[in-house]
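Budget justification, computational time. The allocation requested in the original proposal was used primarily to generate structure tokens for proteins on the priority list. As evidence of use, we reproduce two of the resulting records. The first is shown immediately below.
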Amino acid sequence: MVALLPSCSSTKHVPDGKYLLDDVSLRILDEQNETSEVSTYDLANYLRQTENHKVLGGLKLQLAFYNLSGKDSTKWFNRWVQRVGTPPVIYDSTLTDASVSQLSMALTNKGYMNNHVTSDVRTNAKKKKVSVTYNIRLNEPYYVRNITYDVPNDTIRKIILADTTLYPIRQNSVFDHNNLEKEREFITETLRNNGYFAFNKEYITFFADTAAGSRAVDLTLNTRPPRTLAHIPEYKSHRPFYVRSVTFVTNYNPVTMQDGKYSGKQMEYNGINFIYDENDIYLRRSPLYECCYITPGEMYDASNVTKTYKALGRFSILKFVNIITNPVGEIDGRMYVDTYILLQRDKSQSVSFAVEGTNSEGDLGFGVGVNYQHRNIFKGSEVLSAKFNTHYESISGDVGGLINDNYSEYSGELGIVYPKFKAPFLKHSFKQRIKATTELTTSFSYQARPEYTRIIAGAGWKYVWSERQNQTHHTFNLVDLNYVSLPKSKSHFLDSISNPLLRYSYEDHFIMRLGYSFYHTNKREISPLSKALQQNFYTIRASAETAGNVLYGISKLIGQSKGDEDSYKVFGIRYSQYVKMQADYAFTHNFSDRTSLAMHVGAGVAIPYGNSSVVPFEKRFYAGGANSVRGWGVRTLGPGSFATRNSQNSFIYQCGDIRFDASIEFRSKLFWVIEGAAFVDAGNIWTIRDYADQPGGVFKFGKFYEQLALAYGVGLRMNFTYFLVRLDMGMKAHDPASGQEHWPMFSPNFKRDSEFHFSVGYPF
């Protein structure tokens, strides 16, 4: 079907006498546009009619798919094809005129009041196609010469002038009408954060004065007196408000209100009022108090309302939160408000079952699991969760070996999440500053592979918190314990590991680590107040962890002697000591809402020291797979120029202590939920020491770049908004392995060089 798409006539469904809108372009004629704040990318949003979407250099794939359909709408195939594709855009001259008007109006609002916009329409009657070019001449913009503030209220004037560098309007800036609205909103927010509860942006006006023949604008900001409020007759001038009382209504139900009052049992805790349903006291007062940033007696601050919303948003037991602030008038010369925090509870407990397909870097499998959750175990919205899962996995995508007990895992986890920073001896003010959740977990995993059986038991205590509209996330692992035991190993498996350092990775060991991870993105959430498309955004991920230092210090302090293996032990088990750091950066440039270019670079290093001579296997890096260099399967690349022995146990040698990855990927929406991609990957792993069983694997500054593996390929994705499924095909371009064809891209062999990856989510 795909092969037929280009051959379909693009005007198949264009009625006689009508024309297909074949191409739309914008052209800015001013030479000085390079220094202006106007781009055709932004102006395209104001067009009332655009052509059908193009991909792959001009192919209208969705239109071509639509044109595969016949005109008989009673046939299901025609209906399905038309629903998946997009119909031809029929040229409408009235929409072209409207686009000219919209473009001119938008430029006027941006300060280019002398702009001139025309349309050039070219018709090809024989092909039934029309092309439209919008010619835009910006001319010189108007600019703000001076800005003054006419604010009679001295207190408000002082607040406004405290720091004008944050305001959108600046001297000598382009006179952009959009910035006037932004400044009104910014000043209003600032005043409401400083007590002026009744202030709104309608009280701020601007007066623009321009001399004839001049592009200079003298701007004056004015504040108007407040409107008369019927319920507060004494409010005749802008005045700050103070908080008289704060009341939590934990079982809010508008039906049960009596004479506008909330019914229930009333209590008081540290100056905060609580109204409970006596038959359902599901939340303790102290957790709610710790989430309340609104304090009786203090000046009203709108930002504290927002903080309270966010803090209560971490309470899983709550399905509804609403904060109402009511002005109560003047008391002893001050204006006051009462605040009511209205809550409704959600279900406390739930049980869920899941059957899922898994893809661990290209290793296909499936699993079943059961999850029990109690969202309010200690009446503080603490979430208790218990999970049990069983998974079967096929190594390296070998679906034929999927149902095999040798490739299985059984795991369980018990955890509790506190919606606050949980630690002893902390003050209330500190807990409010650190908006973190606390997670305590214990886990157990039984893994059976052809080579060995492994048991992993773990426990952890960590803090998770976010900031800046959830654009920055932190995770701090205060302590993370892992005991790894290999009670059963095939004799030939351990015998095949002649290197004692690598052999250690597959023997019993204990890890006590401390770690921190950081995530930041400038990608904004889509909202009615923001543009639907952000042209550029990036993400940064970084983490660092260290293990064994406390135990090593204790061993030294008590004078513990080392055993035959020249290492200290705890409870008869060797413990690991290492440091591991890694960072990743990804950048995406959106050409439109349908095409983008994404880039990624990442690196990491893990160094054993003290009580360890090698990093544990599960903490080492590997290369290849769906999120690495996609010309190789998972754990089949590296380290360095090391060449695999093509044995069943070869994966144990293909891990390292240093990693580097880089990728560039072009993404385009094709039709329906289908997306296409073309990519180039580079990367490898290396060891920090020259191990005899991994020849060519050690990292050397003067040689590592020669050992970078290169791959290229294409992919198809199905984007269902909430999740994305992808199938990538990678081809080897440069193979650093010794004894292999180093540049297979010049003599490709599909069977030898190709690798398919099925995964969920974008690779970066």
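The second record produced under the same allocation is shown here.
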Amino acid sequence: MLITRRETGTNEEVQITALEDKDLKKLTQSRYFFDWKKAREEGTVYKLSLVEGDDILGLISLIEVSVEKRVEIALLCVSRENKGRNKKYDTIAGCLIAFACRIALEAFGIDACVSLIPKTELKEHYKSKYNMLDGGWQMYLEGKSLKEIIIKHYI
């Protein structure tokens, strides 16, 4: 997976791995917005970091809902310096969403679905940037749109 450094336009390779106990010390709410220790109690948390470094650039908490063949994105965030117009890197969130799609596809095959409950102000962003479908209080990816996210951001 690749993310783009905005100031140079160069791509840098990233990896997504499970969040470890030792990482919790690095995760301040001022930089990562949520209580990730609590998130680990409710789902599986993964971190995105550069292959050539250990700085955590983004996090995602996933909950597998097997009976619905769905993976729910419970929390998704990029680090403070990678948010907004002056962010350092592009496509961090896309890589994390694609990772969730990949997990869902591996677990549930062609019936896989990925969903999240967006903040109201982000609903249009998820529709336009990630082709998410509006399911009322949830946004979701399935079928072709799920596969397109994987192809665009994961492969």
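A brief technical remark on that second record: DSSP finds five helices and nine strands in the chain.
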